[in-house]
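Need residues for this backbone.
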């Protein structure tokens, strides 16, 4: 396989999780009578540009299908994050009634609803029919297409260029990262700004967040790699913020290389220097990740087996993609974990891909009163433990497996 950015041969392994079905391919009851398609789940690192990437085995149309089940609005903390973002960008970049905001991967309108409420013209680009329909129900205009150079040229020719483009948690999801980034340079106005949020590879390694690896994540990103990719495709990074979301993310601010007027802030060279000091431009940084993932796997299995021996009941919360990676890598099945609770009605009544554990509503949790609740989306632990505080009333305790098994 060749690097999806620079084209060099990929030889250095980073993580091998065996094989798994796509993490968002939730099963309907009738699907249980049929086989699932599993793909190898291996990550490699490019020793030229230091982009970590998943081996190609499935196309984007297979992974981001019409019934895509991830809806952003079911997390209250993520909605608060989006609302704060809109306020900050309006203030910083002077967005008003004469501006245009475009969000790429607009999902269910979780962010653009706040742009709309502020009276700033906007539209979203979203390829999955299920989430696009939810956004339109909020009154948001959606272009239901995959984004890249071709679509950017069409929209620019229609006079639909943007003062601000937002791309939250999508940069890792694109197979052709060069085409995707180059599209921003075309759709931005000459002095427009684009922001990109994505999980930081440095935090992924430091905190053993291996369960953020799945087929829908084609790339795993450092500022070092992102700056190179942007520069090669017509964008200049001028600022970067470190965020707590998704276990530690970056928000990169970029402008067109041929017309931007924002000065490059000190945060950019500072973070690049920190990444280099951490060893991210040398092979050794990537060498021990596999061992740490296997440690987490063992700890989870030991916990579930011990709970079974002691007669303790265990349920899980959050049918998230990262939970599917963890459960399938560990080989957990319904005999060890009986159900997963999720707020999203689109997931309830379905089954986790691979493990085939049933997904149920929160009422199930209240009725069955488990002794332990395994929180699969560990990045939302604080939100979830607050939401489910009543579990402690019957003596229940919460468990997370990443970065190490924690019981409270």
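Answer:
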């Amino acid at each position: 396989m060749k690097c999806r950015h620079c084209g060099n041969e990929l030889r250095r392994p980073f993580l091998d999780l065996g094989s798994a079905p796509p993490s968002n391919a939730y099963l309907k009851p009738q699907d249980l009578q049929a086989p699932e398609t599993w793909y190898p789940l291996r990550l490699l690192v490019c020793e030229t540009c230091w982009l970590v990437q998943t081996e190609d085995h499935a196309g984007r149309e297979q992974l981001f299908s019409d019934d895509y089940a991830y809806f952003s609005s079911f997390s209250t903390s993520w909605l608060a994050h989006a609302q704060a973002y809109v306020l900050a960008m309006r203030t910083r970049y002077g967005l008003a009634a004469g501006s245009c905001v475009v969000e790429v991967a607009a999902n269910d309108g979780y962010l653009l609803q706040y742009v709309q409420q502020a009276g700033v013209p906007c539209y979203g680009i979203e390829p999955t029919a299920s989430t696009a329909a939810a956004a339109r129900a909020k009154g948001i205009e959606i272009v239901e297409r995959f984004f890249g150079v071709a679509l950017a040229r069409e929209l620019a020719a229609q006079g639909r260029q943007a003062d601000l483009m937002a791309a939250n948690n999508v940069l890792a999801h694109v197979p052709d990262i060069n085409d995707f980034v180059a599209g921003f340079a075309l759709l931005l106005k000459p002095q427009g700004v684009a922001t990109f949020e994505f999980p930081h590879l440095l935090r992924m390694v430091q905190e053993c967040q291996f369960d953020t690896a799945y087929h829908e994540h084609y790339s795993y990103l450092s500022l070092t790699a992102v700056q190179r990719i942007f520069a090669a495709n017509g964008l200049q990074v001028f600022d970067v913020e470190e965020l707590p979301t998704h276990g530690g993310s970056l928000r990169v601010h970029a402008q067109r290389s041929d017309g931007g007027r924002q000065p490059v802030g000190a945060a950019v060279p500072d973070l690049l220097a920190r990444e280099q000091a951490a060893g991210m431009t040398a092979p050794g940084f990537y060498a021990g990740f596999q061992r740490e993932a296997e440690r987490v796997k063992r700890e989870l299995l030991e916990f579930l087996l011990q709970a079974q021996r002691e007669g303790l009941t265990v349920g899980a919360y959050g049918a998230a993609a990262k939970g599917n990676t963890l459960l399938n890598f560990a080989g957990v099945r319904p005999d060890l974990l009986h159900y997963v609770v999720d707020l999203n009605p689109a997931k309830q009544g379905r089954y986790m891909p691979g493990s085939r554990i049933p997904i149920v509503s929160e009422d199930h949790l209240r009725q069955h009163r488990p002794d332990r609740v395994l929180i699969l989306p560990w990045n939302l632990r604080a939100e979830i433990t607050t939401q489910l505080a009543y579990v402690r009333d019957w003596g229940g305790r919460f468990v997370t497996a990443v970065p190490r098994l924690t019981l409270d």
